[in-house]
Amino acid sequence: MTGAPEAAAPNWQEAETAQVAAVLSATELRLEDGRTLRLAGVRGPKPPLAYDDHSPWRQAEAARAWLERLAPPGSALSFLAVAPGSDRHRRLLVQGAAEGAWLQERLLREGALLLDLRGAESPAPALAAAERLARDEQRGLWADPAHQPLHHSEARRALGRFALIEGRVLAAEDVRGTGYLNFEVDWRQDFTIRLPSTVMRRLTHQGQLLSSFEGRRVRVRGWVFFSGGAMIELASPQEIELLERAPLP
Questions:
Q1: Distances, alpha carbon 88 to alpha carbons 17, 91, 203, in Å
Q2: Which domain covers residue 123, as residue numbers?
Q3: What is the pLDDT of residues 58-69, one digit of tens each?
Q4: Please, which domain of life does this record's source organism belong to (predicted)?
Q5: What is the CATH number for 126?
Q6: What's the 3-state SS for 18-80?
Q7: In the structure, how many helices (H) and strands (E) does the chain have?
Q8: What's the number of domains the chain is made of?
Q9: Among 143, 169, 197, which residue terminates a domain?
């Protein structure tokens, strides 16, 4: 099995092929030889998250069923390992294909999964385009209110779950190596994006200044938690997306 960069389109001629024994979740498959695979670069909706009205989470099983339709038990699966090879649960991290369909791309296009950018330098353009198409056409989970991007003033509605938050950055601050993007004057209560030192170093390596976000409309994805106000902490610079060009000097 040959390793492949996560951001690159897979070269399926180098893939290993094995038989699917079971589909465990929206992103996990068990092979007949006992190995467990985890689709890299994507994430599924996970219980016990709930909607504002506390109704059951409806998308997790729908996403698993999509994967099972594409790669049912007994079918042949082609897969390529991606760095770092396995996760902390010892599942092999892979790009997968069945019946000629790139699983990540197809599941994103149908709105069954979300891009997971926590460890990626950049997503494959085809995967980013697939998620954007599903979002624009409100397919799958994007048709559900729980996954519609929220304005930063409504970020508290997403406490305790994964969400997409949009808004204009009011101010950018570097506090002893940790970055903060604030969206209102009272940063102690309003939505904030926190960039730990590891992410700040990656920004610097990419030649991007924290101050370049000031005045810009952005979309950020991640787990929303409470820290005075609603907050998302980035695991990767790729989790924040600029929605408009920089203003002219």
A1: 24, 7, 26
A2: 3-143
A3: 677 888 999 999
A4: Bacteria
A5: 2.40.50.90
A6: EEEEEECCCCEEEECCCCEEEECCEECCCCCCCCCCCCCCCHHHHHHHHHHHHCCCCCEEEEE
A7: 4, 17
A8: 2
A9: 143
